[in-house]
């Protein structure tokens, strides 16, 4: 199917059974997409099909079901490869999620290549998944963790990045889009800076791959990590892209079935890529369903997905400007910003905002968003977050704004706001 010019949101919504749900007597307004997206019928049906028609183990059997399962599993890998324009299917490793993909690099490539006195550079906008593995690596290796700061207007400070990335840098680990600020980072510039000093760059694509066209070769990144559950796919499956020549030289991490070539009691040798990094029976059903999610997004066209989300975010930014007691985190303009709006209230705690909005059927995220250092650097301990996807509408932004106004009225009557 050739991509539509623009998204037909009404048709899209009809594919998502959960969007017809009522919550607390109101239609569900689902604005927690940065945490996890909803799933279309096509993805749900693919899981049912697998278990009803060809459930079997992969890469092991000569019987029909096993051959069908193996073909579907590898076909899904091919779809992911095309989706991010990876150079080969060997460079696509199935993992459990973004967190596991990042840890895989920390425990293999970084374990072998980072030594005492080396530097690991990351940013002030990272999710805990892209901080803690590096912090722990730095402790294990007596290496130094350096942080590229945020500018006053919610962007990454690229001037400081240029100073922080030095001859001692071994790896630059950066988000592509912040799950708190919505800021889109200039990954290509960081990749060039990393490569200029002989370092590698790892990109956390958890918030970018679901929402914008991503081309790992154009970005020149060495690793890219993302999760299927944030891009219409099931939970429990993620991807690590690795530049093939880097993966080839990387030691394995987990040992067991399927990742070996030869085993004796004395020694073992490793299977080819990508199987070397996929020990044991993989998550077959969810990998296949991820391929279906990719089909769905490709049929819409990622340019159209991005354009839709930019439009809705721009509208939300305009409407948020009406709320005097709400403080937005991150860029207040649409430039370099994806569909994530985090905010705090002058006097109402974000958990209270979230609970009050839930009474109106509105689902947002509240808390530290797995980014404690970032949240604390804004002198708060918790924030509320609305995040949009392909099925959200401007009318739902209105529902959120009305909900926030109603919540504010409630708390001010109670003498709190
Ligand atoms: C930017 C970013 N990185 C990493 C993660 C971790 O993803 P997962 O929980 O699927 O491992 C998230 C999830 O919210 C995220 O937003």
In terms of topology, how is this protein built?
Layout: H1 9-14, E1 22-23, E2 26-27, E3 29-30, H2 41-54, H3 64-83, E4 92-95, H4 98-107, H5 109-113, E5 119-123, H6 132-141, E6 144-148, H7 158-164, E7 169-175, H8 187-196, E8 200-204, H9 216-219, E9 223-227, E10 238-242, H10 244-248, E11 260-263, E12 268-270, H11 284-300, H12 302-320, E13 326-328, E14 340-345, H13 350-359, E15 362-363, E16 365-367, H14 372-377, E17 383-387, H15 394-413
Parallel strand pairs: 3-15, 5-6, 5-7, 7-8, 8-9
Antiparallel strand pairs: 1-2, 4-10, 9-10, 11-12, 13-14, 14-17, 16-17
The structure holds pyridoxal-5'-phosphate (PLP).
The site of pyridoxal-5'-phosphate has 15 residues, from helix 4.
């Amino acid at each position: 199917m050739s991509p539509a010019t623009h998204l037909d949101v009404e048709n899209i919504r009809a594919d998502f059974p959960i969007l017809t749900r009522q919550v607390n007597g109101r239609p569900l307004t689902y604005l927690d997409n940065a945490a996890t997206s909803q799933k279309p019928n096509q993805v749900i049906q693919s899981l049912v099909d697998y278990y009803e028609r060809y459930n079997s183990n992969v890469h092991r059997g000569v019987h029909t079901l096993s051959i069908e399962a193996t073909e579907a599993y590898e076909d899904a890998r091919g779809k992911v490869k095309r989706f991010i324009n990876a150079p080969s299917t060997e460079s696509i490793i199935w993992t459990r999620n973004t967190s596991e993909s990042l840890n895989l690099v920390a425990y293999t490539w970084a374990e072998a290549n980072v030594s005492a006195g080396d530097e690991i550079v990351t940013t002030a906008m990272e999710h805990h998944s892209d901080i803690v593995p590096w912090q722990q690596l730095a402790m294990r290796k007596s290496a130094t963790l350096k942080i590229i700061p945020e500018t006053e207007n919610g962007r990454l400070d690229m001037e400081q990045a240029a100073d922080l990335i030095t001859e001692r840098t071994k790896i630059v680990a950066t988000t592509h889009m912040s799950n708190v600020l919505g800021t889109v980072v200039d990954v290509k510039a960081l990749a060039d800076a990393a490569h200029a000093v002989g370092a590698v760059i790892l990109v956390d694509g958890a918030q970018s791959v679901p929402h914008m066209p991503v081309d790992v070769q154009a970005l020149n990144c060495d690793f890219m990590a993302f999760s299927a559950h944030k891009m219409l796919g099931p939970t429990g499956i993620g991807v690590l892209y690795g530049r093939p020549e880097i993966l080839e030289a990387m030691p394995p991490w987990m040992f067991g079935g399927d990742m070996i070539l030869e085993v004796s009691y004395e020694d073992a040798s490793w299977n080819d890529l990508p199987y070397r990094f996929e020990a044991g029976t993989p998550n077959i059903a969810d990998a296949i369903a991820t391929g279906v999610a990719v089909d769905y997004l490709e049929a819409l066209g990622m340019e159209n997905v991005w354009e839709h989300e930019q439009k809705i975010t721009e509208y939300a930014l305009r409407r948020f400007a009406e709320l005097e007691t709400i403080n937005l985190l991150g860029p207040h303009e649409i430039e370099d910003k994806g569909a994530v709006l985090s905010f705090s209230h002058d006097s109402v705690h974000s958990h209270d905002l979230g609970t009050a909005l839930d009474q109106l059927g509105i689902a947002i995220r509240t808390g530290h968003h797995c980014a404690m250092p970032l949240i604390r650097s804004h002198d708060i301990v918790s924030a509320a977050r609305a995040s949009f996807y392909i099925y959200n509408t401007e009318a739902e932004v209105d529902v959120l704004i009305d909900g926030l106004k109603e919540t504010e009225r409630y708390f001010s009557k109670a003498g709190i706001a």
